[in-house]
């Protein structure tokens, strides 16, 4: 990551700006999602509580209707008269049955209405004949209950009538004499449990939420399939807390098993409506909001990224152009001038760069001019010190004196030396024809062959078409000298030195090869390091000036100064087999006059 950031200012700016913009966008998206999630849950709770209140209102009407019916029947003259009369009166019994039938037949939630007398000799009266019942009077379990409580609602129980078997919830209350206020009988109004259950099934709570009707002991009176009546709520939801308020909500369990429990206490009866909504119901709705949020955030991110990239591209394009120019520019060539497309800080930077480039070009030209003048002055001083005409005349005199005495070897050596020095000075000119360079090498070889007779053979293979081309002078002679002194003279017997030139397109490669003693790999690497030492090294401070490295380094430096860095010497050697030194140049096309 760090390497990637370090590559480009454009990458840094793009990443930093994108992060600085996307973090708030993502934060806003997450905040919106959590707000929507919270609102979804609150909406589900509010909707669930409204549903429970609506069901409660329906049940309250049902309970109120049953209670009003009970009050009407308790005070009805026929009921009072039937219960007070000690004899059986079939006519009154029939009249009461008709009354019960008339009051109950139009109410589908009333399963049965029964009037029982305290006199065991009088039969019970109801608009449906009860053949079998599981109902247990609470008075038998708790004596004196009716003196404290005027009515009592039973749990769910079965009874069998002429119409079949039904589950009912029965309200029972004592019938007292209207004149003397003593118990004369019992009134039982049974509500059809299936009607209540069907209404709860249609509650429509969120997701797979269920609605249950509980009695005062948290026993289930009615609910959807899968919930048995008269079982405690804790049997299905272990550890559920007791309901401490008349209505409200709380969470049951945590994490993935979390559910929201809604409860509503009915005011006129000790019943409680409970709604249980699994948390996954919220997640199903939240998934929709999450999808919308993700789409909105993604579109915003794409827009931000595209906008940032376009903006950064516009800002960094001039800087990128400047960097490209500087990276591709050669140190040996003038710096290019960049076009100015704006007047902002980047434009001012390019203007300053163009001024600096122009100033560098002027300084470079000035330095080159001064170096040329210095070199010309040094050469003139050297020529003045040597006084070549006096030297040439003296060598010519020695040459003729040797000839007059018949010493041809001395004459040849002095003649070759005179030609060798004349070419080396060459009036300060740096370039010569390849033929002149080879002739200069021939003079040197002739002098060394007289000095070391029968020690080496010399051969020059230069194609005739290359002889008129021009090259930097004094390149081959130091290589011949190095081959002779450090290769041939150190071997046993006679050796050979070969000079050849090979052309390839515009380039010419010169090779100087000997079969001398060569050198080891370690010494070869050391020699290469010394030859490649910094330009301009002072030979007087070099302890190897008498060795091979100074002459080779001099040639290597001159080649790089005049032909470029790729034109330096290439040295190959193998111990006991000899050494090969080569270099490649692009020659000039016409001979020096």
TrEMBL record:
Cited Pfam families = dCache_1, HATPase_c, His_kinase
Q: Does the keyword Kinase apply?
A: yes
- How is the protein disposed in the membrane? Multi-pass membrane protein
Q: A Gene Ontology MF term for this entry?
A: phosphorelay sensor kinase activity
So which domain of life are we looking at? Answer: Bacteria
Tell me which residues make up the HAMP domain: 313-365
Q: Which UniProt keywords apply?
A: Cell membrane, Kinase, Membrane, Phosphoprotein, Transferase, Transmembrane, Transmembrane helix
> What is the recorded name of this protein?
Histidine kinase
Q: What is the lineage of its organism?
A: Bacteria, Bacillati, Bacillota, Bacilli, Bacillales
């Amino acid at each position: 990551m760090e390497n990637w950031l370090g590559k480009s200012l454009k990458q840094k700016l793009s990443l930093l700006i994108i992060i600085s913009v996307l973090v708030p966008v993502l934060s806003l998206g997450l905040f919106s999602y959590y707000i929507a999630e919270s609102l979804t849950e609150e909406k589900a709770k509010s909707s669930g509580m409204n549903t429970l209140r609506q069901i409660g209102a329906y049940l309250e009407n049902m309970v109120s209707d049953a209670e009003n019916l009970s009050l009407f029947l308790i005070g009805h003259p026929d009921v009072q008269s039937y219960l007070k009369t000690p004899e059986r009166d079939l006519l009154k019994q029939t009249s009461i049955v008709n009354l019960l039938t008339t009051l109950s037949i139009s109410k589908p939630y009333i399963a049965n209405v029964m009037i029982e007398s305290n006199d065991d000799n009088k039969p019970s009266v109801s608009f449906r004949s009860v053949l079998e019942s599981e109902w247990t009077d609470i008075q038998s379990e708790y004596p004196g209950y009716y003196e404290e409580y005027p009515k009592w609602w039973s749990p769910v129980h079965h009874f069998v009538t002429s119409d079949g078997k039904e589950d009912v919830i029965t309200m029972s209350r004592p019938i007292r004499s209207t004149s003397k206020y003593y118990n004369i009988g019992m009134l039982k109004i049974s509500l059809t449990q299936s009607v209540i259950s069907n209404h709860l099934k249609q509650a429509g709570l969120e997701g797979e939420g269920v609605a249950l009707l509980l009695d005062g002991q948290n026993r289930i009176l009615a609910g959807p399939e899968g919930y048995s009546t008269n079982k405690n709520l804790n049997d299905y939801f272990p550890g559920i807390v007791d309901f401490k308020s008349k209505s409200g909500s709380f969470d049951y369990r945590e994490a993935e098993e979390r559910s929201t429990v809604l409860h509503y206490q009915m005011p006129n009866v000790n019943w409680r409506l409970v709604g249980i909504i699994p948390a996954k119901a919220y997640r199903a709705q939240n998934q929709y909001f999450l999808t919308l949020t993700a789409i909105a955030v993604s579109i915003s991110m794409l827009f931000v990224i595209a906008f940032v990239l376009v903006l950064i591209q516009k800002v960094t394009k001039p800087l990128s152009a400047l960097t490209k120019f500087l990276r591709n520019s050669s140190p040996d060539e003038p710096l290019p001038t960049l076009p100015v497309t704006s007047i902002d800080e980047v434009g001012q930077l390019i203007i300053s760069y163009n001024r600096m480039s122009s100033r560098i070009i002027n300084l470079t030209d000035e330095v080159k001019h001064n170096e040329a003048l210095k070199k010309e002055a040094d050469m003139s001083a050297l020529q003045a010190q040597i006084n070549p005409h006096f030297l040439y005349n003296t060598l010519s005199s020695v040459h003729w004196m040797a000839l007059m005495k018949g010493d041809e070897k001395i004459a040849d050596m002095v003649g070759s030396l005179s030609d060798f020095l004349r070419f080396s000075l060459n009036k300060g000119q740096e370039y010569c024809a390849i033929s002149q360079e080879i002739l200069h090498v021939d003079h040197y070889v002739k002098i060394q062959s007289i000095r070391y007779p029968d020690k080496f053979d010399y051969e020059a293979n230069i194609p005739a078409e290359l002889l008129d081309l021009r090259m930097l002078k004094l390149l081959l002679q130091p290589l011949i000298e190095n081959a002779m002194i450090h290769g041939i003279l150190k071997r046993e017997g006679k050796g050979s030195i070969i000079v050849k030139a090979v052309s390839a397109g515009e380039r010419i490669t010169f090779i100087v090869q000997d079969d001398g003693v060569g050198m080891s790999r370690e010494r070869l690497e050391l020699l290469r390091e010394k030859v490649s030492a910094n330009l301009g090294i002072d030979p007087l401070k070099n302890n190897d000036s008498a060795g091979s490295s100074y002459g080779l380094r001099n040639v290597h430096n001159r080649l790089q100064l005049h032909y470029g860095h790729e034109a330096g010497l290439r040295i190959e050697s193998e111990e006991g087999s000899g050494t090969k030194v080569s270099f490649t140049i692009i020659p000039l096309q016409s001979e020096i006059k």
